[in-house]
Amino acid sequence: STANRIITRVEDELISSGRFSLPKRREVEETEWTVVVVDVTETLLEAEKKQRRYYSGKKRRHTLKSQVLVDASSTKILAAAHAKGPKHDYALFKQTAPRCQPTVWYVADSGYQGLASRHPQTCLPIKKPKGDQLSPEQKAYNRALGRFRVAIEHVVRSFKIWRILKETYRNRRKRFSLRFNLIAGLINAGLDL
Fold first, then answer.
1. CA 71, CA 146: separation in Å to the nearest integer?
2. Between β-strands 35-44 and 105-107, what pairing exists: parallel, antiparallel or unpaired?
3. Model's pTM, two decimal places?
4. Which helix (H) or strand (E) holds 154?
5. Which helix (H) or strand (E) element contains residue 17?
6. CA-wise closest residue to 123 among 38, 19, 13, 4
7. 47 vs 88: CA distance, rounded Å
């Protein structure tokens, strides 16, 4: 209990200092970004009595899902959102993503099918048609998009360096988003320990 009190006090001090917080939603919405890359990561949880609340079919484990929006040019984290494991990536985006300028390009993976109808300037991988193959041009497009998206995969990797997010999360779930956002602020500040 003493360690928990110390950790809580340190987290609150770091957040209140303002140096390690993410940009405010209004700043993200008003700034002219060129390309924003979106991705999701999941943190494992211990199983609980109410099995279905946090069970992710994708991971086949109980998880907390975290969505990250990253500026492609600077690889700075713009926003983070959180949900329980079964929440679909695109549903989480619809609920929580800031409304960026219409000139912004979104780059996402295939978990965000439908984003193009909401935001016309969207780059998604081309899915293989059922019973058919992708053309060489489509394969080249997917490969180029994957090379571009690798930047956000490196940002997700920098989250997984932190043991609290890499291994099974055993702390209070109420403070998970605060801890995730604090780690995001530390990564933005260049303290990728």
1. 16
2. parallel
3. 0.81
4. helix 136-160
5. helix 2-17
6. 38
7. 20
